[in-house]
Amino acid sequence: MALVTCTECGREISDQAVSCPGCGAAPNAAKREAPKPKRSSRAAAIIIGGIVVVVAVVGIEIATAPNNAADPETSQSICSQSAQAAHYIAAESANNPGGVVAVTGDLVAKDSYPALGDKLLAHIGAAVAADLKVGKTPAEISADVRSSCKQ
User: Fold this and answer.
1) CA 43 – CA 141 distance, rounded (Å)
2) Domain that residue 10 falls in
3) Closest C-alpha to 86, from 33, 143, 36, 35
4) CA proximity to 148, closest of 66, 65, 49, 39
């Protein structure tokens, strides 16, 4: 049995009470504190998996791009654009993780990041969707992409 605060009169009452003994307010009017969500190991695995996918795809794209594998400026540009794209997709989809597909599709259709290509944008979108589901912010997502490029 826990004590909760009645939102009508402010008295502490039992969470099992049918009504507040002070004012008669219904029990659903009592303010109940919600337990804090715990991050699960599955959420951590999803985050790590998303980062690994982005790093792998960026690495493959850089390594297989003609005449670009040895060019540090091109590699840095691709990394920077990957982080920008991840941030944009996350920011536009933050309140609607299902919107990631639409936002990513718009970027592909508009050829917003030509150096990245359609496949890399699709992989970035998938990683962003996984990160949004576990509560990461757009800034955290783009920072993860930037840090993975430095490795």
Assistant:
1) 14
2) 1-36
3) 143
4) 49
Instruction: Note whether 41 and 26 are within 8 A (CB).
Output: no
Do 56 and 104 lie in a common domain? Answer: yes
Sheet holding 12-14, edge to edge: 12-14, 3-6, 30-31
Same domain assignment for residues 6 and 45: no
Instruction: Give per-residue pLDDT as tens, 84-136.
Output: 888 888 888 877 767 888 888 888 888 888 888 888 888 888 888 888 888 88
**Closest residue by Cα to residue 75 from 60, 93, 90:** 60
For residues 118 and 77, state if they share a domain.
yes
Look-up: residue for tokens 């757009």?
Answer: 138
pLDDT at 79: 84
For residue 144, the cross-strand partners are none
Q: Is 137 exposed, middle or buried (0-12, 13-18, 19+ CB in 10 A)?
A: middle
pLDDT at 13 exceeding the cut of 80 = yes
